[in-house]
Amino acid sequence: MPPSPGLVESRRPTLSVIASLLRNPLQALPPEVYRERLVLAKTGGRTSLYVCDPALIQEALTRQAGKLGKGELIRKVLGPAIGEGLLTADGGHWRWQRQAVASGFQHEKLLGFLPAMIEAAEATRGRWQAATTPLDIGHEMMRTTFDIIIETMLSGAQALDVGKVEQAISDYLEPSNFMFLYNLFGLPGWLPYPGRAKARASVTYLRENLRALVAQRRAEPPEHGDLLDMLLASVDPETGRAMSDEEIVDNLLTFVTAGHETTALGLAWTFHLLAQHRDWEARVLEEIAAVTEGGPLQPRHVASLPLTKAVFQEAMRLFPPAPVITREVEEPFTLGGVALKQGWVLYVPIQAVHRHEKLWEQPERFDPSRFLSEAGRGRHRYAYLPFGAGPRICIGSAFATMEAVAILAVLLPALRLEPLPGQAPEPTLKITLRPKHPLQMRASARG
Ligand code: HEM
């Protein structure tokens, strides 16, 4: 390959990559991604290009988006659970599904979800006030955001058991590093790995329950005005056909999982960071008190809490819930002087871009002021991309941000969270960025 400015080749021995993938795939990222623009890696039979330069990320995810697909790797890992729903589909099938649900994410519609978001946060506050033992904050946030996604998007699904869904998602994601490893080295999918049976059982549980919901709703008039009604009514503009039950289940499962797990993780990391940075917590409390005048949070308050939002944004910079974007090159093109060939894997390592030493001053430091007015000027727009970018940008980004601010503004003024001593949480990559061990904290009422 002709030399390209800013391109480095990672020369980590294959065995060390495998060991990291098994231990914590976050450490399998080539270390160069935290300081270079483009990093090439050859592992197994695959060539991968890590794109860390914001201008090149923009080029790849926007102008060249049509030459990139979600790829075999992602489809093999996520496909057994979410089939070819909105997150995993490509081309015309993706476009149809995106259009089918787009109206559900318009600003006005989202504002209508705020009362349900506040109510779910208030229920969590009640649980925390009554708690006598330490709380698993990750689990608590999963419960809260799960209640919200079901209440706002899937009426009739209240019978789904949040505990079982959470367990099923964890069981599915737990062996995801093995699935990646097998695919990277072209090993056959039938080879055993730890957790495989549990992962399969979890998919059966989730899909069977959603199938029953679709059958029930097909028998009812479409008057819920929710996501499921939109999917049931949608018609493919290319073929004129409606979605099959299995395609609808693909999407419901996509939204139930993508729509609550990521936000919950972002919030769990936010509570962790605020407990380490009480000065910022005090500023957030001041802002909330000024806006609510000490009364209960109202939907109209949520848009007036820029500092609370900045804290959540900064938490997602340090701990992006979806830390790596993966694409496969379907049509060759040139990026930053590098000729990408069909079949190459392109990674945008969001986690590394967010901590890149050439893009951020003191990248490891928690400093929400980076997201307040002036501070962000001069920074490339694609240096920060917790929700991805281009046509495949997260459809739920505004939903998630609104929800997170509402949850923080209900919980923080009522309760102070104290981490249990001796805990330094380790983030681990299981498709999403999860704490390796539960984030245990003790809640006490604020005086
Ligand atoms: C803090 C919370 C969230 C984060 C960090 C996040 C992150 C992301 C990212 C990075 C992508 C792009 C993946 C790629 O390009 O390969 C994505 C896509 C997606 N997200 Fe989110 N997400 C969040 C919340 C949500 C919510 C609340 C929903 C739904 C209510 C949602 C639904 C989706 C869907 C359906 C896609 C696929 C979109 C497409 O390909 O057209 N996400 N998300």
Automatic annotation (TrEMBL):
Keyword Metal-binding on entry: yes
Record protein name field: Cytochrome P450
A Pfam family this chain is assigned to: p450
Protein family (similarity comment): Belongs to the cytochrome P450 family.
Domain of life: Bacteria
Keyword Coiled coil carried by entry: no
Residues of the signal peptide: none
Alphabetical list of InterPro entries matching this protein: Cyt_P450, Cyt_P450_CS, Cyt_P450_E_grp-I, Cyt_P450_sf, Cytochrome_P450_Monoox
Keyword terms of this UniProt record: Heme, Iron, Metal-binding, Monooxygenase, Oxidoreductase
